[in-house]
Design brief:
Elements (H helix, E strand, L loop, with lengths): L2 H6 L10 H26 L5 H22 L6 H22 L5 H20 L5
Helix pairs in contact: 2-3, 2-4, 2-5, 3-4, 4-5
């Protein structure tokens, strides 16, 4: 099942399907789950991971909200969507930086997903007009 297909079926989309935005939405949703999972794994680590947990949970919330806004096609709120894409990209960059400070495999995977999500959000920005 693909969110790309779901978005393309929306009556208001027609020939105006935005591939870059759909990809950003998909990756924001995935990133929210990865960050939540990483935060949970950090709780179980023996060392103090409080900052990483906070970064991951903040990023997860921003990504989840961005994903929800990015899949909506009825009417428009271009300014809000652009702000969310920018915020999501920055939140992901910050989370990737924090996770990058740790040698845990879950942090490495989370940082990788965050960098991918940030890149996709930045690619989608010029397509939202």
């Amino acid at each position: 099942m693909s969110i790309h297909k779901m978005i393309s079926l929306h009556p208001d989309v027609g020939d105006d399907f935005n591939e870059a935005l759909a990809t950003a939405a998909r990756h924001a949703m995935l990133c929210a789950e990865m960050c939540t999972s990483c935060a949970d794994a950090c709780v179980a680590e023996k060392m103090d991971m409080a900052q990483c947990i906070r970064s991951c949970l903040d990023c997860a919330d921003v990504c989840a909200a961005t994903g929800r806004l990015a899949i909506r096609r009825t009417a428009q709120n271009v300014e809000m969507l652009r702000l969310m894409l920018e915020t999501c990209a920055r939140a992901c960059e910050l989370c990737a930086e924090e996770c990058g400070r740790h040698e845990h495999e879950h942090c490495r995977l989370c940082a990788e997903m965050c960098r991918e999500c940030a890149s996709d959000c930045r690619k989608a920005l010029p397509t939202v007009q």
